[in-house]
Structure formats: structure tokens, C-alpha cells
Design a protein that fits this description.
- With about 180 residues, the chain is an alpha/beta fold.
- The chain has a single domain, classed as Maf protein.
- About 30% of the residues lie in helices and about 30% in strands.
- The chain is built from 6 helices and 7 strands, in the order βαβαββαββαβαα.
- Strand 5 and strand 6 form a beta hairpin.
- Helix 3 crosses helix 4.
- The longest helix has 17 residues.
- The two termini are about 15 Å apart.
């Protein structure tokens, strides 16, 4: 059995492209413990600690965890704490390019793979009206960087993505699929 250790509804949807049959588990860890590390190390540490916590309950199954951060000038941009924070984050990212880093871990019995994918995302210059309307939908409030690339049709915040769109959503499907096949060999 495959266990996706994530509470994210977006990751669950993307996981269906890898396998239609999987179980969902969550791992409550203190993510702030990792925030004093450099961005890539921080997100790797979070994904690894989640995987190690969940694998204890599923020792004979494949456990997959992922974590995503947004980084602007070496600063981690977290999920907003409220609407005001979301507006501030969107203003900070406006008309700039930032990185989205998703790390993932796959554990199967005594095998462990950890990997990461980086995409560069360039924002359009955002008007105050667009930011206010977007934040009013509530969509930015549960996303790192206060945006979802998948919201682009109605709210065009993203100008372009260099790299994996699935990574920007939070689950790089192609890379995870490849490593999932590798760990089962």
C-alpha cells in the first residue's frame, strides 16, 4: 500500500495521477524547529521528519511525504497567518521572480529516498484591486507564498513558471513517480 502523509487536498489530487489507490495519513511535527536552517535544508528537514514519524505506523508500506516553500532572496515566505499577511506577501512577490522548492521523501521498508525540485516563478505586477479581490476569496490563506498557480485563470498573479507546474502546486508528480518506481526495485 502507498501512504501519502499530507493533509493537503492539492497533493491528494496530484497523487491520483501516480496511483488511484492510496491511504492518507498526517504527521504533526513542529515545522518551526527547521526554520532557522537555510531554505533547502529547512524544507528537507521538515519532509524527512514527517516521513520518519509516519513510517512507524506503516512499516511495510510505501510512505510519501512532501513539503513546499516559497523563497524570495533567501527568505522563506510562509503561509499567511491572516488576510493582511496574505496581502503583504503578494505585494512583496509582485513583479519579482522567486523560487518554489518542494522536497519529498519516500520510505519503503529499509530504503529511503529524499529529493527536491526547484521551479522559478515570476509574478505579474499586481494591482491593489487584484490583490484585495484574490485574498477575499480565501484561496491564498492556506498556501505557501499566499497564492496558487492553479488560480491563474481568474486571478493572473503568475506571469511565468520555469520548471514544474506540479512542483509549484506542491507535488512534483513526474519526479515522485520516477523515484517511487526506483524504490520498489
Amino acid at each position: 500500500m502507498v501512504v501519502l502523509a499530507s493533509a493537503s487536498p492539492r497533493r491528494r489530487e496530484l497523487m491520483k495521477r501516480i496511483t488511484p489507490s492510496f491511504e492518507v495519513a498526517t504527521a504533526d511535527i513542529n515545522e518551526e524547529k527547521s526554520y532557522n536552517l537555510p531554505p533547502l535544508q529547512a524544507v528537507l528537514d521538515i519532509a524527512k521528519r514527517k516521513c520518519l514519524k509516519v513510517k512507524d505506523n506503516y512499516p511495510d508500506d510505501i510512505v510519501i511525504t512532501a513539503d513546499t516553500i516559497v523563497v524570495l532572496n533567501d527568505e522563506i515566505i510562509h503561509k499567511p497567518i491572516d488576510e493582511i499577511d496574505a496581502k503583504n506577501i503578494l505585494n512583496k512577490l509582485s513583479d519579482k521572480t522567486h523560487q518554489v522548492i518542494t522536497t519529498y521523501c519516500i520510505n519503503y521498508k529499509d530504503r529511503f529516498i529524499e529529493n527536491y525540485v526547484v521551479s522559478n516563478v515570476t509574478f505579474n505586477k499586481l494591482s491593489e484591486q487584484l490583490i484585495n479581490e484574490y485574498v477575499a476569496t480565501g484561496s491564498p490563506l492556506d498556501k505557501a507564498g499566499a497564492y496558487g498557480v492553479q488560480d491563474g485563470e481568474k486571478f493572473p498573479v503568475v506571469k511565468k513558471v520555469n520548471g514544474s507546474i506540479d512542483n509549484v502546486i506542491g507535488f512534483p508528480v513526474d519526479e515522485i513517480r520516477k523515484d517511487l518506481l526506483e524504490i520498489q526495485k
